[in-house]
Specification:
heterodimer, A: alpha/beta, Rossmann fold, 2 domains, eight-stranded mixed beta sheet, six-stranded mixed beta sheet, 13 helices, 14 strands, 40% helix, globular, B: mainly alpha, two-stranded antiparallel ribbon, 12 helices, 2 strands, 3% strand, Peripla_BP_I (chain A), BCAA_transport (chain A), Leu-bd (chain A), amino-acid transport (chain A), ABC transporter substrate-binding protein (chain A)
């Protein structure tokens, strides 16, 4: 009898821990939180934290444990930390990353480890097309969509020729290709600069010499700050500079008046008239002392998506969970939102403009809607149905 | 095309002047004390941050710039007393490790104090705007002021080194440290002076560049590597060499980015030329360094090293 009791106890102890249903939900948050682009990761992290607070510290009705880690902007370190999150710490979901090259490094470790990856920002073309994956959801956008929005705006304005400027790495090339696939005018010139370059004097001189009708630039983070500041100093104020990921709430605090009036393409702005957006902006400003950016929105929506799906389907039945995620049954800060077959969003895109608000902060503001319910252009290459 | 060439020459000179301000301190520290200081770029960054903090507090560019000098001088002195003084007699490996550690600590400290987001400094009214150069080309007044300030500092340094007693001791110290010490000169005090002055120059560079570039935690790292290229090309310990090498590096880098692809286009098809051009342009500075070291192993103005 005693032996029987002992072996029963043994068998019981070997049953998977998952049997205890109300174990907290574990969500890894893997973002770039150090180095020059750290501010992008901080916005996304604060967006996730604000969503957690809004949900009353419960996600999908369950206690939640958020594990925030820094990928240091390095793909190898990111892959290692993703593996640790999923395998050692048993994360059910990973929210991340900021950068597309990191996405390529962590997608494998996260999905093969049995977790679901929800990207708050990076949306590289391969995951929208041939590498699409039932365990990867991108709540932000596909990288090409912002430049396409600006190119479409330039077409409508009848811009005859444009000069293009981007850093010399994959996302920079993608960005210019996305722009050129839509732009109908002539490309006056194309310049690639080393990633991390801060002084654009040589490039600005060439643009001044060529006098194009407009300039399209993709210069994320600190590079964008410097480009915008040097733009007017070089006497180029008469040429419109339209950019993607260059003028937003992460860079405007440094660009200030130099950026006011500049146009950019985006899927969100603080003054977008959607349910809950004004409250989100006010709460974010109150809690973190800065105006939220589209990175913060990505983080916020990522956790809201997870909440809606876990509430519906729990985490035990993988197929049901995937289906619940795909329904995207949550209130996005961007208003209408659903997923394409490739798990990338179908959403509206806007032309936005940098302004100085009444409270003295700098932010973007919606000028007009450019695309309505737009899907990305790679969805046809994705075998998922 | 000639106008563009002239404009890029000015751009190159302005970049070179900036490199010189950072390199002047580093080459003296390296040449006289035989001390490898990877934390020199951090002093440049601190100059930028102090400038950003002061101009936000006072709203006055000139007052802030004047205050940056004593602050960075003091930072240099404190670092010398607390850290570097203990490293002079250690091996180069120890120096590299310790100063690299300092880079990490100070960068993190800056991030704790000011956050990771880039900061900006408003340009003084008097120097904002641009002047017409030729045709449609304009050049920012502020960049001309930077060139002027850098030339002024170079002149002042030349005067101190060539014409004063301290300068004489410096030159003697660079040539033979032990002998200067044996003649009764307090070499430690000399070192401290050199170090603090170098820190102040780097801080000054960080401060005057802040209205053009953003101030962020990575700004020191990006300039440090080129600064080392400059002092190696110029010859370790030679301020004159650092000045010429800095101008050379600045102009080669700027011109290469601009004219490399254009030159290559006459040799190969445009698409390949553009691709090759943007690959080769960032390498030009290092190719220049390799070439200089091949023909003059101790740099343009370096003495043949015999330690």
């Amino acid at each position: 009898m005693r032996r029987l009791a002992l072996s029963t106890a043994l068998i019981m102890s070997m049953l998977p821990l998952a049997a205890q249903a109300q174990e907290p939900l574990k969500i890894g948050v893997l973002l770039t939180l150090s180095g020059p682009p750290a501010v992008l990761g901080e916005h996304a992290r604060d967006g996730v934290l604000l969503a957690e607070k809004t949900l009353g510290d419960k996600v999908g009705g369950r206690e939640v444990e958020l594990i925030v880690v820094d990928d240091e902007g390095k793909p190898d370190i990111a892959a290692q930390k993703a593996r640790d999150l999923v395998e050692a710490q048993g994360a059910d979901f990973v929210i991340g990353p900021i950068f597309s090259n990191i996405m390529n490094a962590i997608a494998g470790p996260v999905t093969s480890g049995g977790a679901i990856l929800v990207s708050p920002n990076a949306g590289p073309s391969n995951f929208a097309g041939k590498d699409c994956n039932p365990d990867i959801f991108v709540v932000s956008y596909q990288n090409d969509q912002m430049p396409r929005t600006l190119a479409e705006h330039m077409n409508r304005q009848g811009v005859a020729n444009a000069y293009l400027l981007a850093p010399n790495y994959q996302a920079g090339k993608d960005s210019l290709n996305g722009f050129k696939s839509v732009f109908k005018g002539e490309v006056a010139g194309e310049l690639f600069v080393p990633l991390g370059q801060l002084d654009f004097s040589a490039e600005l001189a060439q643009i001044a010499a060529s006098q194009p009708a407009a300039v399209y630039a993709f210069m994320p983070g600190g590079m964008g700050v410097n480009l915008v500041k040097q733009w007017s100093q070089a006497g180029l104020g008469s040429i419109p500079l339209m950019s993607a990921f260059t003028v937003d709430e992460t860079t405007l605090p440094a660009e200030q008046d130099a950026a006011v009036g500049m146009l950019t393409g985006s899927n969100w702005a603080p003054d977008l008239q959607t349910p809950g957006n004004a409250e989100f902006v006010a709460a974010f400003q109150g809690a973190y002392g800065r105006v939220p950016s589209l990175y913060a929105v990505g983080g916020y929506d990522a956790l809201m998506l997870i909440d809606s799906a876990v509430k519906k389907a729990g985490t035990e039945d993988r197929e049901a969970l995937r289906a619940a995620l795909k329904q995207a049954d949550f209130q996005s800060l961007r208003g209408s939102f659903k997923f394409s077959t490739n798990n990338f969003p179908v959403q509206d895109f806007y032309l936005t403009k940098a302004i100085k608000a009444e409270d003295g902060t700098y932010r973007t503001s919606v000028v007009e809607k450019v695309f309505t319910a737009a899907a990305d252009s790679y969805v046809g290459e994705c075998p998922m149905k | 095309m000639f106008n563009l060439f002239l404009l890029q020459l000015l751009n190159g000179a302005q970049f070179g002047i900036l490199l010189f301000l950072v390199a002047a301190g580093l080459t003296l520290v390296f040449g006289i004390m035989d001390f490898i200081n990877l934390a020199h770029g951090v002093l440049y960054m601190i100059g930028g941050y102090v400038m950003a903090a002061l101009s936000a507090a006072t709203g006055n560019f000139w007052l802030s710039l004047a205050l940056v000098l004593p602050v960075t001088l003091a930072v240099g002195l404190v670092l010398e007393l607390l850290v570097f003084r203990r490293l002079y007699d250690r091996s180069h490996l120890d120096q590299v490790l310790a100063t690299f550690g300092l880079v990490l600590v100070l960068s993190e400290l800056v991030k704790i104090l000011w956050g990771a987001a880039p900061l900006s400094v408003a340009m003084p009214e008097a120097l904002a705007g641009s002047i017409p150069l030729a045709g449609l080309m304009r050049y920012p007044v502020y960049r001309i002021a930077v060139i002027g300030a850098g030339l002024g500092v170079a002149l002042a340094l030349w005067f101190v080194i060539a014409r004063t007693r301290v300068g004489m001791l410096l030159r003697a110290g660079a040539a033979n440290r032990a002998m200067v010490s044996a003649l009764g000169v307090d070499i430690n005090r000399l070192f401290m002076l050199v170090f603090a002055a170098g820190a102040m120059l780097a801080g000054f560079a960080g401060a005057i560049v802040s209205p053009i570039l953003s101030v962020d935690p990575g700004m020191g790292d990006s300039i440090l590597i080129l600064t080392f290229v400059v002092i190696v090309i110029g010859g370790v310990g030679s301020v004159k060499g650092a000045f010429l090498a800095a101008l050379l590096v600045g102009i080669v880098d700027t011109m290469g980015r601009m004219f490399g692809p254009i030159l290559l286009k006459s040799l190969m098809e445009p698409a390949a030329a553009a691709q090759a051009g943007r690959t080769i342009a960032p390498m030009l500075v290092y190719i220049l360094m390799a070439a200089v070291l091949f023909w003059r192993p101790s740099g343009l103005f370096g003495r043949s090293v015999a330690r």
